[in-house]
């Protein structure tokens, strides 16, 4: 039965359905997912602000089929903000999340994962069909992301060493990296930068990946070939392309259990052991926020964010 209830969040009326429906094998329900996103909104919304959101939806829970959704679904409420983006396949109308009601509405659609690009709408050029992704008018990214994808045999302690090595290389260039878990098994670094054409950020990220692979060949690999990644960390630089996106801080991941992409302190990274778990439950993520505040706030772009250096050679 498709049971619906009407509720108000910040003065907006929403119709929510099947709140008791389990979305994870552990029994974590859609109602719990909605509650988490409403509670985490104060910390999460600044990291979603002004960014197009790609959603990963699990209509029958994480044990069933999932799909990536870019276009706003039919029947989206008028109060949900959207952004048109030009793509090779035509105009895509993305959802943007500016408030708690939008997060609750997305969670009610079983949009468990929320992913965003490294650029904001304010730093993009609008063409006749939406934001222009390529050419001289491409978006200006305000974030450099370094995704450290562990290959077979890599432990959390290995990932921690890799993150520290990558952050050290960035620090030598005057860039401060901020770590978070991917919500699964890897670590990601985010660096706030002055608005820079996305293609230039991609080129720099690619050069950093190659630099790390050459300087630390026993830790890193810069190739996507899976058969070359055993015992190594793949530095995924492609997430810096204007058309790509990265899981947003505080997003839940669609795994066998609910786990959150969680900002970490460098002390926590350094303390990771081979048997450490990199997954954080929604309840624990909220508890961390209550105790430590938003550790990811430091990576939000500001007027003082540094310029991106030239690519490494």
From TrEMBL:
Domain DNA ligase D polymerase: 29-296
Pfam families in alphabetical order: LigD_Prim-Pol
Listed PANTHER family: BIFUNCTIONAL NON-HOMOLOGOUS END JOINING PROTEIN LIGD
Name of the protein in question: DNA ligase D polymerase domain-containing protein
């Amino acid at each position: 039965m498709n049971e619906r209830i009407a509720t108000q969040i910040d003065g907006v009326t929403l119709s929510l359905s099947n709140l008791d429906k389990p979305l994870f094998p552990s029994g974590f329900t859609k109602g719990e997912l909605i509650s988490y996103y409403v509670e985490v909104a104060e910390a999460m919304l600044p990291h979603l602000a002004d960014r197009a959101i790609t959603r990963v939806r699990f209509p029958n829970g994480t044990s069933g089929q999932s799909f990536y959704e870019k276009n706003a679904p039919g029947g989206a409420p008028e109060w949900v903000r959207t952004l048109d983006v030009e793509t090779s396949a035509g105009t895509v109308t993305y959802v943007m999340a500016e408030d708690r009601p939008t997060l609750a509405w997305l969670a009610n659609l079983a949009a468990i994962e929320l992913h965003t690009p490294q650029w904001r709408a304010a730093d993009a050029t609008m063409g006749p069909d939406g934001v222009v992704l390529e050419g001289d008018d491409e978006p200006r990214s305000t974030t450099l992301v370094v995704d450290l994808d562990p290959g077979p045999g890599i432990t959390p302690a290995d990932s921690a060493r890799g993150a520290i090595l990558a952050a050290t290389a960035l620090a030598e260039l005057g860039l401060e990296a901020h770590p978070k878990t991917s919500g699964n098994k890897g670590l990601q670094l985010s660096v706030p930068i002055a608005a820079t054409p996305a293609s230039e950020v991609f080129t720099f990220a690619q050069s950093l990946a190659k630099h790390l692979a050459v300087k630390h060949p026993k830790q890193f690999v810069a190739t996507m070939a899976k058969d070359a990644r055993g015992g190594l960390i793949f530095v995924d630089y492609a997430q810096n392309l204007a058309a790509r996106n990265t899981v947003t801080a505080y997003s839940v991941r669609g795994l066998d259990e609910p786990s959150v992409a969680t900002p970490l302190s460098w002390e926590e990274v350094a303390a990771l052991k081979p048997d450490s778990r990199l997954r954080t439950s929604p309840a624990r993520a909220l508890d961390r926020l209550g105790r430590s505040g938003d550790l990811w706030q430091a990576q939000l772009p500001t007027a003082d964010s540094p310029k991106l250096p030239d690519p490494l050679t």
